[in-house]
Write a structure and sequence with these properties.
The protein is of the alpha/beta class. It has one domain: Rossmann fold (3-Layer(aba) Sandwich), CATH 3.40.50. Helices cover 38% and strands 18% of the residues. The chain has six helices and five strands, in the order αααβαβαββαβ. The protein has a five-stranded parallel beta sheet. Helix 6 links the parallel strand 4 and strand 5. The longest helix has 11 residues. The protein starts with 7 loop residues before the first helix and ends with a strand. The structure holds S-adenosylmethionine. The site of S-adenosylmethionine has 19 residues, from loops.
Length: 148
């Protein structure tokens, strides 16, 4: 039996039908001291020059897409998520963002298309994480970076 954490119907139909549950959990972290701006920290570590192609897998409501936008990132950016509700929220957060519905286990992306592939806080939802990791590697160009 698939764990509820990795059950596609539970994830898309309940837990991530909208971004309300994610935002509720995120609101708790706002009390952490020191407060950590996770998308900011991750993107700082990536040392982007602003022209890279970035793929954000399990992009949720677009926290990383929004941070890239805020930084004026000029390269292509695509967010992928299997929940239509989360993609709608991502579009609301970053109007004009390129977002696609897709599964981390079978990404709708070409080989080696991304300089940076992000998959933050999502691999624990994938029934077969090794397949998803292979997909992250497949879509990341040689010399690029993937992060989860
Ligand atoms: C905890 S949220 C993290 C969202 C975002 N990465 C962040 O850090 O703010 C997990 C997201 O992964 C998505 N997700 C779960 N399993 C997925 C899969 N197999 N393929 C694509 N997206 C998936 C969910 O719909 C949800 O939006």
């Amino acid at each position: 039996m698939t764990s509820p954490w990795a059950d596609r119907d539970v994830l898309t139909g309940s837990q991530y039908r909208t971004d309300a549950n994610l935002e509720a959990r995120r609101s708790i972290y706002a009390f952490g001291r020191p407060w950590v701006d996770l998308p900011g920290v991750v993107l700082d570590l990536a040392r982007l020059n602003g022209t890279e192609t970035v793929a954000d897998i399990g992009c949720g409501n677009g926290a990383y897409l929004a941070e890239l936008d805020r930084r004026g990132h000029r390269g292509s950016v695509v967010g992928i998520d299997m929940s239509a509700g989360m993609l709608a929220a991502a579009r609301g957060a970053v109007p004009g963002a390129a977002v696609l519905r897709g599964d981390a286990g079978r990404l709708p992306l070409a080989d080696a298309c991304a300089d940076l592939t992000l998959a933050p806080h999502m691999l624990y939802h994938v029934p077969d994480p090794m397949t998803a990791v292979a997909e992250l590697r497949r879509v990341t160009r040689s010399g690029g970076c993937w992060w989860s």
